[in-house]
Design a protein that fits this description.
The structure holds 3 protein chains of 3 kinds.
Chain A (H helix, E strand, L loop, with lengths): L1 H18 L17 E5 L18 H4 L1 H5 L7 E4 L4 E4 L2 E6 L5 E6 L13 H14 L3 H4 L3 E8 L2 E6 L5 H9 L11 H10 L7 H12 L11 E2 L9 E6 L13 E5 L3 H10 L11 H9 L3 E15 L9 H10 L2 H9 L3 E3 L11 H4 L2 H6 L7 H10 L3 E2 L5 E2 L7 E7 L3 H17 L2 E7 L1 H10 L4 E6 L6 H11 L17 E4 L2 E4 H7 L6 H18 L2 E3 L1 E9 L4 E2 L17 H7 L4 E2 L2
Chain B lengths: L13 H18 L1 H26 L4 H13 L3 H9 L10 H13 L14 H36 L4 H15 L2 H15 L22 H38 L2 H8 L4 H26 L6 H6 L5 H11 L2 H29 L9
Helix pairs in contact in B: 2-14, 3-4, 6-7, 6-9, 6-11, 6-14, 7-9, 8-9, 9-11, 10-11, 11-14, 13-14
Chain C lengths: L5 E14 L2 E14 L3 E5 L6 H8 L7 E11 L5 E3 L5 H10 L1 E4 L3 H4 L6 H11 L5 H14 L4 H5 L8 H13 L5 E5 L7 H18 L2 E6 L2 H7 L2 E6 L2 E7 H6 L4 H9 L38 H5 L5 E4 L2 E3 L4 H23 L1
Parallel strand pairs in C: 3-8, 3-9, 6-7, 7-8
Antiparallel strand pairs in C: 1-2, 1-4, 4-5, 9-10, 10-12, 11-12
Helix pairs in contact in C: 4-5, 5-7, 7-8
Chain lengths: 591, 364, 349
């Protein structure tokens, strides 16, 4: 028996090795589909978890993500960060109505769904009705839009609840439009519910919301040139197939998009082996080096966030402004950035809660000039500490008049290589300077929980975000991880947001929330400048550096990738360049 | 047993006999091995379920925040955008009293309902398990079988020819195999075999089966199944065969020193009969417990191996779902895997009794 | 015995073990003849080489043992001479058990714990071409009856279901299964209580009478050997130092070591307090002492003993001994015997 078993095993091994060389090649589905396969990756889920509902976070937003969803369900427009302008996709025209009470979009009249039916204003109305019941779009959850009105077959008005908003504009132009036909009678019932004036906390509303989120569309009607069914989702990769009816069907250069499953670890060998040509995953510096050594190009793109040193303002002496400022002076942020993510991170320059790349756009020059850049200056740091009663003791440690040294635990997430490196380097620098900081590595979920609970002394989490608006970028730690943004009595950093400043009582929370309201860019710049100067002075957290994406791009497999100085590379992944370059045919298979 | 109506007077004679009969029956049932292990098994599962229920929910963070973080970091959404997408997703109330959540869950569980996943659009947990379980059974089961058989044969051979070059080489190999973690082996196979030496195209060996091939009992599909299971199984075997070899070797050596082996030689028995009937059977006994434990843990699989090879097994899924804090799914998988451990232990006891007459189960 | 046919002849047998420290001379130049129906008792302390000698007779030695010199010749039932050391593997396998069987000590571990007694019987029979299970079973049951076991029950038992004495009887029956000419008993009564010991000895005596096999009986206990042996050989440090008819050895020991052993042997007739062990311990066989290997522990030792090994010499009819002081030993033995009987008389009064 055992002899046969061994034979059997040997047989399996030989058979499978031989099998490699004779794998069947897939047959093209449509005759006029372009040839070639785009080899990407996305961590989608598998059926039965995988589904095609665009109004449930476990549906298309998880399984295609913001990047690939846009080539299946087109958005009205595409945003270019470098020029701060929108390029047409599904819409031909957009803007604020003359009286500024609403925002309008006008759809292309030749656009078709993948089943050949036209894309009309009714689809937009349906999309927003479903999103309103489920509170799925930020234009509703943020309270910007009160009504969505069909003007004609291709024009829709979004009526502002309050003053007009550029934030709402982005929300509208960046949201994918779904096909009403995919959702049965749900769009109509949603519209009826809204028309009936039912309250959003009523039972009927909640019941319909559940029905919508639990609805499982059987097909994905695509406005983009690619679509897929659940049969195209396998455990190793999912395949998006070309379809002929999209406005972009004739311009794209790939017959299918193959998205490999898996996160960083699992995709690393696939990138190296050429099974993946482009990956949106985050790879540690050593892996980036391996890619570069293998001749794979790395595209550098902003990620629009980075590690910040968070203070618990309930922990002495971190409630003292001078101490926080001293820490800002004493940390060498360039060193810190390099250790965080190699060349894929840059030290923060302006230290004001806005991304350095956004500062010139979002602020007036006169305010920018007033910003303290906290350039490395340890003498200045010492001076600041001495000004509030600290002195170096005989051990070379900074201590107050009672002899208490500046000692704290610094919690950081062990799994995040970048954040933990940033934290550990900050700890080293502070200890070298004469503090007594103890590193405490915890699982990342624990770190986040502890920060929210205020159960920390120093910690590290992200600041800024991938939004072109100052109110979103300021949001960072002082709202997300502060009592104002938390519930259930969680205190977070417990940095007071209402206080006397330069003789007036200010509410920083409200100032940030309102910063991007309205349409007047000049006013917004002035608001942003005000906030930036306050944050720059008070240093409620220290923005250490900004992390960049380094995405592998295999030029043996892909042609037409952006040059290093292509302004489109200033887009973060929410506005990923491959969306535009796939659709307009800039990217093609390499020969 | 107070329900039994002692005081009924219409049939006074038959009652004591009925009572004693049922008492006898109960005693017999209680004494029966199957009944006892079943009760023990259910009790174990209940304790495990209760403990994991508590611990899972005591894990830091919760599914909502995790999902928001995922959307923020992976898709560069702002916190506000992410939160509005995630807020409606979860059919989970983090503020519900713990005891209420527990009684609800146990109530459903008793009816065989494992509940619905809370992070994946309410997929029934039983469906999720049904999807991932067979792959793990296939891959890890095959790996365990191969590893065990090779370990037995080579380990016994090492003991038999101990001190020879064969033994030394194999002992070195086994120590390395035993010492290197499975994920290192997995990466070595991929990076050295697949990328540096270009022995195979990595993508053709990832996942469970070539998606282009229709499922069915055709040779192409079966070949593809075997091709895709090759790397996980090879990794599993390389990582675990050393342990089996070393255990079998030491067990065989101590068996070879037993008097009954010398006696068997003196009796002129054939080499074959001595190897299998005398050395093999006795040397295998200490390994049965280990085998039972390994079989029990087949279901939780080899998490990292499955993760690296994107093999759609229960282990990889458990890992992902733990990251997402999907309480009901984690709970369901734990329940199934602990049931597997409990059952395989019972089977091991029974099997041990068959193999070793000194440990007949149920006696005493 | 001398008149009977020799079934086993051992000449000049030397066995060494290769150890880390060097060559260990376990048996040196042992020679003896075993006649038909004779029982030869091999007596000596643990580690004196008696077991090695017997394992050597069946070529059951471990791999690190080497038979340096000597010859082992059996005469089989048909009268053919078999040179055991020249047998190939297959012939050796056939030879074992059918010509020469062995009953091991420590019945505990001599039976495979995971199979039935009957399977061990069948295995043995099958290995020697007896495939008729019915016949084998009959033969085994008969033997079980002869060794005073409940045949049916034992036949279908597992070893762990039997007591130590029962297991020893099973081993005896197993040894006789193929009706061998020579049976080696390796301390078959050790580790058994005194009553069981007695009954095993009775069984053996009866069997020997009935079946007429020759046997080699290994024991460290001279008294037990005396009950069953026709001839007794004393071994010390791998050498046969004295050999002769049981009564000669028992009543007129001529080697100081034999005398010492008799003094160390508990007898039912002698009180325990009079037990007198041999002082010192057996010599290191990797670097054995020069001259007579016993001289370090020997109360009779003279200068010659330290330098020149004494030759084996005929002392009386069939009684050989290797000792320069054999006559003094003989005298001392007689003296001691009279003291011990006096002591017994004194105690009884």
């Amino acid at each position: 028996m055992k002899r046969y078993l061994l034979l059997f095993v040997a047989f399996i091994l030989v058979f499978s090795v031989v099998g490699t060389f004779s794998t069947a090649k897939p047959v093209a589905k449509a005759q006029d589909a372009p040839s070639g396969t785009f080899l990407g990756t996305w961590p989608y889920t598998l059926p039965p978890d995988h589904h095609l509902n665009g109004f449930d976070a476990s549906g298309l937003d998880t399984n295609l993500g913001v990047v690939y969803r846009q080539i299946v369900e087109l958005t009205p427009a595409y945003y270019m960060w470098a020029t701060d302008e929108y390029l047409p996709m599904l819409a031909t025209e957009w803007g604020f109505t003359e009286d500024n009470t609403a925002y309008y979009i006008k759809l292309r009249e030749d656009a078709l769904w993948s089943d050949g039916t036209p894309i009309t204003a009714d689809d937009v109305i349906a999309t927003y009705a479903l999103a309103r019941i489920t509170n799925y779009f930020s234009v509703f959850s943020g309270g910007y839009i009160s009504d969505v009105v069909k003007v004609d077959d291709y024009t829709v008005n979004f009526v502002f609840a309050g003053e007009p908003s550029l934030v709402a504009e982005r929300g509208i132009l960046k949201s994918s439009i779904s096909a009403a036909a995919s959702y049965g009678d749900l769009p109509q019932r949603a519209l009826d519910m809204i028309a009936s004036g039912a309250a959003s906390d009523s039972e009927e509303w909640a019941a319909l919301k559940t029905e919508i989120t639990e609805f499982r569309p059987t097909q994905l009607l695509a406005s983009g040139p690619y679509t897929y069914t659940l049969d195209d989702v396998s455990d190793s990769y999912m395949t998006l197939h070309w379809q002929p009816n999209s406005i972009f069907s004739s311009s794209v250069k790939f017959g299918e998009i193959r998205l490999w499953a898996g996160e960083t670890e699992a995709t690393t060998p696939l990138v190296l082996s050429g099974d993946i040509a482009h990956s949106t995953n985050v790879y540690p510096p050593s892996t980036q080096q391996a890619f570069a050594d293998a001749g794979i190009r790395l595209l550098i793109m902003p990620r629009m966030y980075g590690p910040a040193l968070l203070f618990n303002h309930d922990v002495h002496p971190f409630e003292v402004k001078e101490v926080r400022q001293a820490i800002a002076y004493l940390i060498d942020r360039s060193e810190n950035a390099f250790l965080t993510n190699g060349l894929g991170a840059t030290a923060t320059v302006y230290m004001c809660g806005l991304l350095d790349s956004s500062v010139p756009v979002l602020m007036n020059q006169e305010d920018i000039d007033k910003l303290n850049r906290y350039e490395l200056n340890r003498d200045k740091a010492a001076e600041l500490l001495e000004s509030v009663g600290f002195a170096k003791n005989s051990d070379g440690k900074w201590a107050d008049a009672d002899g208490n040294v500046i000692a704290a635990e610094y919690k950081f997430p062990a799994e995040f290589a970048d954040f933990s490196a940033a934290a550990q380097n900050a700890i080293d620098q502070m200890n070298e300077f004469g503090f007594d900081i103890t590193p405490v590595a915890t699982p990342w979920q624990q770190t986040a929980q502890d920060i929210r609970d205020g159960n920390f002394e120093l910690s590290v989490w992200s600041w800024a975000s991938g939004s072109p608006f100052s109110s979103r970028q300021f949001f960072g730690p002082i709202q997300r991880f502060n009592y104002v943004g938390l519930t259930d009595g969680q205190k977070g950093m417990n940095f007071p947001m209402e206080f006397e400043y330069n003789g007036e009582t200010i509410n920083l929370d409200q100032m940030i929330k309102d910063a991007s309201n309205g349409l007047d860019i000049a006013v917004q710049k002035q608001r942003a400048g005000q906030i930036a100067l306050i944050i720059n002075d008070l240093m409620p957290f220290i923005p250490l550096n900004v992390i960049l994406s380094t995405e592998p791009w295999n030029e043996d497999l892909l042609a037409g990738g952006p040059a290093d100085d292509d302004p489109i590379l200033q887009n973060p992944s929410a506005d990923h360049f491959i969306v535009l370059y796939l659709l307009n045919g800039t990217i093609s298979p390499a020969n | 047993m107070g329900v039994i109506p002692f005081r009924r007077t219409d049939q006074p004679v038959s009652q004591p006999s009925l009572w004693s009969l049922s008492k006898k029956l109960l005693r017999a049932v209680y004494r029966s091995y199957i009944f006892r292990v079943t009760v023990q098994g259910i009790l174990t599962l209940w304790v495990v379920t209760t403990c994991t229920f508590y611990m899972i929910r005591k894990m830091p963070n919760n599914p909502i925040e995790v999902k928001i973080d995922e959307f923020q970091t992976k898709q560069n959404l702002t916190y506000e955008e992410a939160r509005s997408k995630v807020a409606g997703l979860f059919d989970y109330d983090p503020d519900a009293p713990f005891i209420e959540q527990y009684t609800d869950y146990m109530g459903n569980l008793v009816q065989g309902d494992l509940g619905r996943s809370i992070t994946t659009g309410r997929t029934p947990v039983s469906q999720q398990i049904a999807k991932y379980l067979p792959w793990t059974l296939f891959a890890v089961g095959l790996g365990l079988l191969i590893s065990f058989v090779i370990g037995m044969i080579v380990g016994a051979a090492m003991a038999y020819w101990r001190g020879t070059v064969f033994d030394n080489v194999m002992t070195a190999f086994a120590s390395i195999s035993y010492g290197i973690p499975d994920f290192v082996i997995a990466f070595m196979i991929l990076l050295i075999g697949g990328i540096q030496l270009e022995l195979f195209q990595v993508g053709d060996y990832i996942g469970s089966v070539d998606p282009e091939i229709k499922a069915g009992l055709n040779p192409e599909y079966i070949r593809s199944l075997l091709q895709h299971v090759l790397l996980p199984v090879t990794t599993y075997v390389l990582a675990s065969v050393g342990g089996w070899m070393l255990t079998m070797k030491s067990s065989t050596i101590s068996t070879l020193g037993e008097d009954y082996i010398t006696v068997a030689h003196a009796r002129g028995l054939s080499q074959r009969r001595i190897l299998f009937g005398y050395v093999g059977r006795n040397a295998m006994l200490p390994l049965m417990t280990r085998l039972a434990i390994s079989v029990g843990f087949v279901l939780s699989g080899s998490i990292i191996i499955e993760y690296i090879f994107i093999y759609p097994g229960l282990g990889k899924y458990l890992f992902e779902m733990t990251g997402k804090r999907d309480y009901t799914t984690i709970q369901g998988i734990f329940l199934v895997t602990s049931a597997a451990v409990v059952i395989s232990n019972i089977l091991a006891d029974l099997l041990y009794g068959v193999l070793d007459p000194r440990v007949r189960v149920g006696s005493k | 015995m001398a008149g009977k046919e020799v079934v086993l002849s051992v000449q000049d047998l030397s066995i060494t073990y290769l150890t880390r420290r060097g060559r260990l001379q376990a048996v040196s130049h042992a020679s003896f003849d075993l006649h038909r129906g004779e029982t030869l008792a091999l007596i000596g302390e643990s580690g004196c080489g008696k077991s090695t000698l017997n394992f050597g007779l069946m070529r059951l030695l471990p791999k690190n043992a080497n038979t340096d010199t000597g010859k082992i010749v059996y005469t089989d039932q048909a009268g053919q001479k078999i040179d055991v050391l020249a047998l190939n593997t297959r012939a050796l396998r056939k030879f074992r058990w059918s010509e020469c069987a062995m009953v091991f000590q420590g019945a505990q571990n001599s039976l495979n714990p995971v199979i039935h007694v009957r399977d061990m019987i069948y295995d043995t029979a099958k290995a020697h071409g007896l495939n008729n299970r019915g016949e084998v079973r009959e033969r085994a049951l008969e033997l079980f009856r002869k060794v005073r076991l409940d045949p049916e029950r034992v036949f279908n038992s597992y070893p762990h279901e039997l007591s130590g004495g029962m297991r020893q009887r099973v081993l005896i029956a197993l040894g006789l299964l193929l009706n061998p000419q020579v049976v080696i008993f390796d301390e078959p009564t050790t580790a058994l209580d005194i009553l069981t010991q007695r009954s095993i000895l009775n069984v053996l005596r009866d069997l020997k009478e009935e079946l007429g096999f020759s046997s080699i009986f290994i024991s460290h206990d001279l008294a037990v050997a005396a009950e069953i042996a026709d001839t007794v050989a004393t071994m010390y440090a791998g050498e046969i130092v004295e050999m002769g008819p049981v009564n000669d050895i028992f009543y007129e020991p001529r080697h100081a070591y034999t005398l010492g052993l008799m003094e160390a042997s508990p007898r039912l007739s002698v009180g325990r307090e009079e037990l007198d062990g041999i002082p010192g311990s057996p010599p290191d066989l990797v670097e054995p002492p020069t001259g007579c290997k016993f001289h370090i522990r020997c109360p009779f030792a003279i200068e010659t003993c330290k330098t020149t090994p004494p030759p084996l010499e005929q002392a009386s009819m069939g009684h050989i001994v290797a000792c320069y002081k054999s006559s003094e030993v003989l005298e001392k033995g007689k003296e001691l015997r009279s003291i011990s009987s006096t002591a017994r008389v004194a105690r009884l009064s």
